[in-house]
Amino acid sequence: MTRARRTTRHLLVLTLAVAALTLAQARQSAAPARRIAVFGSSVANGTGDDLGKEGYTGRLRELLAPRGWEVLNQSRGGDNTLAMAPRFEPAGEPKPNVRYLLPVNPGYVLLGLSLGNEGIQNGTSTAEKDAIYRQFESGMRRFVERSRQHHIVPIITLCYTRNDFTPVEYEYTRRMNLAINAWDVPSVNFLGAVDDGTGKWAKGFWHDSLHPNAAGHAELVRTFVPTLFEALEQGKPAPKRSTAAGFARLEGGAAISFAPEDSMHPFAFGFTVRLAGARSGESSVAEIRGSTLTATTGMKSETRGGGRGTLEFETTTLTSAAPFSATIVVQNGMWTYKAADGSVVQSHVKADGRAHRLFVSHYTARAETLFFVDGVLAGRTAERLEPKLFSLGGPRDADFKDLLIYRSALNADEIAALESGRLLQASLEVYSPLADEEIRSRNSVANLAQSLTSAKVGPGGVVHIDK
Questions:
Q1: pTM: predicted TM-score of the whole model, two decimal places
Q2: What's the pLDDT score for residue 278?
């Protein structure tokens, strides 16, 4: 072979090698496929769904399919972090009828496990429960790391309820959820949808002690921010608490509002507000509008296999009723929540010219609204709401900052975490510091949450006050 031919051949081999490497690098850097694998245990698998719609996984598929997303169910009943780990990828020849993760080539994975399956309720001492807690935490971290090593974007569903939980297991569940909320991974707050306030399923929303019924699964899927996956696809970073100074002053009327594009049930609506001086009369600073919901509860029965007899359970159907308007007001000089039926939850905190943090946290399933002022529960009221508009506005000298809207209710622990300066990202759809350099009428305000929606400025002047 001549030197020229050898040189040509070497150049060809080198060219092909470079092309192959470039192609491999391009594939690695390409955006993940629009395929979401739900990788979890029985609740993720759809157990308890008496309508046979594959639980929250099937409903998530229905929600995202019109947006061009594919949702696969790679879950298996009974799994915990230890049992699910071998299903991440096959060791050698794949076993038949096993739902592995990697072979379905997802771009995103929804990790859906719980402390219940991990066995937190079986620990007979604090030391045993702590060990189970740490096992779950480290197992979930490994799933996140392994997913990212394979260029799969992870999302976590936070821990949820079980009817065999005592106050001890409920405390571990809330603690784990706060811990995951601090990780650099998106999450979805299931507990804020179905919690009855003691760590058990809300009445009428469970199939058996371990699983939600169809109504419960429907509430779980509503805690997903509908545009979360598009935001991740576009590389929108995890939200961080803004350190910007100053407030947005709303010059009369409902100047900043947010209308959810998809149905919302549980929610939390919060902001910081400052009024110039004390108030004696009644002044509204925020409003929630939508429809009240009527709940109809009936009994269902199922014949269980294996000669286990019949299972009977309650199920709740929610239907829209009358329009409502609920407001946060200054009444008798105190920060107050006026509920949809006109009832009043009054705090003992004065609207005294200082900045105050106000939160309305609503649990649709258990039909209860909590009102927090400066991190402290002011009171609660019974109501069941489907919000369709959140707005800020009121007196001409009302100053606002840090608008937060979640697609899940928040409990006292979560409100306390926010009050301490943390930012919780689970099910967060809107986080607007209201520190935009310029806030114009009929424009959107900046939204740092991992979503593609935003609050908008309506008629009326808005100015930024740097103090």
A1: 0.91
A2: 58
